[in-house]
Amino acid sequence: MIAIVAADSNWGIGLKNELLVRIPSDQKFFRETTIGKVVVMGRKTLESFPGKKPLADRINIVLTKNKDYAPEGVVVVHSIEELDEKLKNYNKDDVYLIGGASIYKQLIDKCDTALVTKIDKAYEADTYFPDLDSDENWELVGESEEQTYFDLIYYFRKYVKR
Fold first, then answer.
1. pTM higher than 0.85, yes or no?
2. Hey, where are the domains in the chain?
3. Which of 23, 58, 66, 71 falls 20 to 30 Å from 144 in CA-CA distance?
4. What are phi and psi of 87, to 5 degrees?
């Protein structure tokens, strides 16, 4: 499984169930990377999408404890064991972990790669991605040239589990 996320300089990823910032090239990268693939998320992440609808042209899997949750167009699982069983049907390199914070925290150890759009700015945030820079189990193996969006500086980074 591959984690994909945009995080600020403090590893913040969201505030009040919204992204901290929308960067068109990051959104394009996310779309191009996950199209035709499996995306795994929590309920709040799905509900943050326009119209609370699943992402088009992807298999959307939602992990939630809510047994009554049954939105249209998604596969709902209620435990990590149930998720593991569903994911056996897919190549692990076609499965992307897309959030939110509690899902990243629960499942980051099942990932062997993390694609991080690292934003060189600290925002007010209430949700965070695990700090891979200070985790000895992860290694930064690639970083793009400096990218800019107006006055914002960011980098596309690739981490792999050691």
1. yes
2. 2-161
3. 58
4. -70, -15
Return averaged pLDDT per consecutive 10 residues of the chain, 162 residues in all.
98 96 98 98 95 97 96 97 97 97 97 98 98 98 98 98 96
Sheet holding 127-128, edge to edge: 18-19, 12-15, 127-128
Q: Are strands 95-99 and 38-42 parallel, antiparallel or unpaired?
A: parallel
- The whole-angstrom separation of Cα 157 and Cα 6 is 10
CA–CA separation, 88 and 90 (whole Å): 6
2-161, which class in CATH? alpha beta
> How many of the other CB atoms lie within 10 Å of CB of 5?
24
The amino acid present at 14, given as its one-letter code, is G
Strands 18-19 and 12-15: antiparallel
